[in-house]
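Case study: NADH-ubiquinone oxidoreductase chain 4L.
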Amino acid sequence: MIKFCGFCMFFSGLLVFCSMRKHLLLTLLSLEFLALSLYFYLFMFLGNFGMNYYFILIFLTFIVCEGALGLGILVCLIRSQGSDNISGLSILGW
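Here is what the predicted structure looks like once written out:
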């Protein structure tokens, strides 16, 4: 039952990530949700085999760095464009 819940978490996050392409904030939130579901799977995997949880700390560090980088890009985009709409961006005139 717990594995099915994690499976549903991953695919619902993937569905939102693929469908929300207009706003950068929703895309970043879905990426964080995907990372949270992978963290959940990794915790279950390492717990079932009795391994150390040091790799989870490294993975959590990378998740935090990815979130900080995404928020930095979001702030830069809002300051330059006025909103987080990706559809209004041009590749050449950014």
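For the exam, be able to explain this: The mean pLDDT is 82.
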